[in-house]
Amino acid sequence: MADEAATFALAPARVHEAEGPGRRAFALWQAARHDGPLIWALPAHAPHLPMLRGLPEEVGARLHVIRPGSEVDLLWSVEECLRSPGVALVIAEPSSPLSLIAGRRLQLAAETGQTTGLMLILEGQGSNAAETRWQCAPLAGESRDSTLHRWDLKKNKKGTLRFWTANWNGKTSALHLVPAAGKRDQSAETSR
Amino acid sequence: MHCLNVAAESQGLQRGMALADARAICPGLVTRPADLAREAAALAALRRWVERYSPMVARDGADGLVADITGVPHLFGGEADLRGDLHARLTRAGMSATSAIAETRGAAHALARHGEGIVEEGALTDGIGPLPVTALRIDGDTAQALTRMGLKRISDLMAQPRAPLARRFGTGLVLRLDQALGHQPEPVSPEADLPQFSARMTFPDPIGLQADVMKGLARLLERVCVALAQHQRGARRLRLELHRVDHETAQVEIGLARPMRDAGRIKALFTKGVDEVDAGFGIEALRLTAHVTERLAPEQIGQGRPLRQEDALADLFSTLGNRLGFDRVLRLLPAQSDIPERSFIIAPAAHSAPEESPPQCGPARPITIFPPEPVTTRGGGRPGHPPSAFRWRRMAFTTLRATGPERIAPEWWFDDPAWRTGLRDYWRIETREGPRLWLFHTPQAAAWAAQHWFAQGEFA
């Protein structure tokens, strides 16, 4: 169990990226696994909000939502949060492509504050400075009590690329890997 | 008419007169609406100034001050000189005032309002005897009744036997009379000054460098924080005023995410504001005020990690709040409502404490919620069943599995425009394409049946 979850653990003090329709679920699972205050930075114009009653256990009370009015303010506040030693995980939803400068600044801030960051980006709007990039999508489950997620590690600066099918019900930090009939166990591609 | 100046009084106008009457008597009358709050503030300021004559100064009614100057007059060269000094200074400040000095508070009050002057020691009976009975701080009815009986002056009252007076007019009149004559003690109780959390600093030469300003600020902060610690309070907002040589004033204001009196950490928040200030030809004075403070009991420090983390988080929220606004740094709090939109409150993190959610029971809730978005269904499905295929956000979905319905009724005591369509049946729809959506149906809505499906959330 612990071993299974460890494969998805984000490297500490780095900034990661997640894209795809299941990126918010992935972010919440990471939030449940991080111990300490959590920050979720959303643009003020974003229609959606995390719903308190649907969040995993213990996440709701630790979660803080920041709603900056502009993209520059959002990046600035994410950088400030990453720089602060009091935060465990910073989740942010930038609405425009991250430039290399922005990505690099965020990495440096994460190193200063020893904080992990997770950018929920739109398809193809990430920055090359990201430590890992995950493609996340919900999968239709075969049975009623399975909520499957396909988490595809598309970019990894220190390791190989893989994909997993995980069964996570959105309530706890517990997770089950589904033995996947994947053909591409070890990808031949090199990291970007 | 609330208040009038000497010129108006000489025309025969009086307090309490109707404005129309006053205009009829004196057509050239200039009037302004009375601002009682500012008047009270001015009186409070004047009270602080009068403390130069005595430490015991109190407000006396809405327009008077009373000071206990026992043992003070010789410092000013006698009572007459003291009073002269007071009047000279008030006149120079543009204020007209009447004053009186007497042995008792009651006598001074009476004399100050009905011809001013000084009552020599031991001459109290002669001093206030000729004054009308209204000067005794008695209510209008009593005064009128006394006048009707022919008792117009205080000396008339003094000559009367006390027992019938008390029986007829109550003990209040006798008490006031005794207080005026000194038979009953009446001390002056000065108001306690509210603690002022401010400090200022003037420089022999104007300064212009940012480092110098920050150094000055550090000294001011130290003083303010000591004052805050003495009164067990913490600053919530601070204002730094920088007075320039050309009489311009620049202001830097900061807010704090929680009450604080730690000089070093507050100073860091001023850095950005001070950086933006234009020093012009130089800054000659600094003034720092903590104008919003809150109670902050002393805390044990050095408890290790949790407290440091809390401090770091509070610092972070102060920084974020000062740039973005404190209403953009939020926290989710549970609320007592089954309506999805109102099942949680978004509260500013700086003004709320985290709350544990009650344990989750009942049907599952999505992880994200958004305003209802219409879902296009194809064809009329079976009534009471979710659509087998639908389009949402220009994507086509096929229903694989549906859990529900969960019927949520609007709160009838709360008129929410979004819930005017009546009941909602919520379904958790698992689609073949992957996304698990939270759809609802409004069976009571009047419109065309296919329009009744909406998406409101996404599950994990």
TrEMBL record, chain A:
Protein name: Protein ImuA
Species the sequence originates in: Primorskyibacter flagellatus
TrEMBL record, chain B:
Class of the enzyme per the UniProt entry, highest EC level: transferase
Keywords: DNA damage
Domain of life: Bacteria
GO aspect biological process, one term: DNA repair
Keyword DNA damage appears in the UniProt entry: yes
Gene Ontology MF term list: damaged DNA binding
The UmuC domain, residue ranges: 4-109
Reactions the enzyme catalyzes: DNA(n) + a 2'-deoxyribonucleoside 5'-triphosphate = DNA(n+1) + diphosphate
Entries under InterPro entries matching the protein: DNA/RNA_pol_sf, DNA_pol_Y-fam_little_finger, Rev_trsase/Diguanyl_cyclase, SulA_CellDiv_inhibitor, UmuC
UniProt cross-references to SUPFAM superfamilies, sorted A to Z: DNA/RNA polymerases
Enzyme Commission code: 2.7.7.7
Coiled-coil zones: none
Keyword DNA damage: yes
Residues covered by the DNA polymerase Y-family little finger domain: 196-288
General function of this protein: Poorly processive, error-prone DNA polymerase involved in untargeted mutagenesis. Copies undamaged DNA at stalled replication forks, which arise in vivo from mismatched or misaligned primer ends. These misaligned primers can be extended by PolIV. Exhibits no 3'-5' exonuclease (proofreading) activity. May be involved in translesional synthesis, in conjunction with the beta clamp from PolIII.
Family (UniProt): Belongs to the DNA polymerase type-Y family.
Quaternary structure and partners: Monomer.
Name this polypeptide is given: DNA-directed DNA polymerase
Protein species of origin: Primorskyibacter flagellatus
